[in-house]
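User: Structure please.
Assistant: Input sequence and predicted structure:
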Amino acid sequence: MNRYTLITIFLCLTLAVMAQKESFDVMRGNREYHSEQYTDAEINYRKGLEKNNESFSALYNLGNSLFKQQKYEDAAKAYSDAAALLPQDRKQMTDAQHKTAGDTYHNLGNSFYGMQQYDKALAAYQEALRHCPNDNDTRYNLVKTMQMLQQQQEQEQQQAQEQEAQPQDDEQMDKEQAQQILQALEQDEQDTQEKAKRTQKQSRFRTDKDW
């Protein structure tokens, strides 16, 4: 995917993380993922999680397979659950763990970006850069997300202003319509009075003549 036209998708399969042995289901899911059989891969990753719900590899790779299917909300949850299994103290993490955490939060940011939740995507990319400050892909996505977030905020502000202006326009329209109705009623009343006067004159004239 061209990174200069669309946000970079940085997806890495973690086949062995934190010395955790992969189950048969997860390894089969990895093969299916590499074959671009993402639905089948998802099924096997979920089977692996049924056997070990704290398998980082199963959660992380499940997120990858879901992301490939554009199931961004489910992917974000899988990445978030995977991130929760990582050491929380960055100072005690190894370089490999920092790399894994950076990849996880990067992909989490991609998932939020796919849902147009740019504020959450921004936070995820920032966390990824705390682990991998020199990751150019994450830097690029961070800048792209900041631009999209600004556009989103400007659109929301414009919509809010339009909504505020709408009642005033309606109120002005109501006043104009009321004025028109009032003028029409006054004209009808005037016409009625004039018609009544003519009728009275015609009536008296005929009466006088008949008399």
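The chain is about 75% helix and 0% strand.
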